Amino acid sequence: MNEICIHVPSLRENQTVDVEVTVNGKKQIMSYRVESFDWTIGGRELTGRIERLRSLIEGYEKGWELAQIGVPDGDLVPVMFRKRESVLN
Questions:
Q1: Which helix or strand (DSSP H or E) is residue 81 part of?
Q2: Which pTM was predicted?
């Protein structure tokens, strides 16, 4: 198992949450960021919207990886990205 679920404060767009994780005595900082993407630019069809979302995710900043895609809220889809930092201890 390499994933756990924890509750974090509500995030607004472009905010980052840092979580410190200790595994076998080694500390690591995990950074998460949530972005809201307008996927309706891909059109009305679901396949077009999925392609639009896929291109937004693939074109996201280097060093951040997809962690989770949320439930669409109207025209926006929340997407969580994760960035792994170096080990602290």
A1: strand 76-87
A2: 0.74
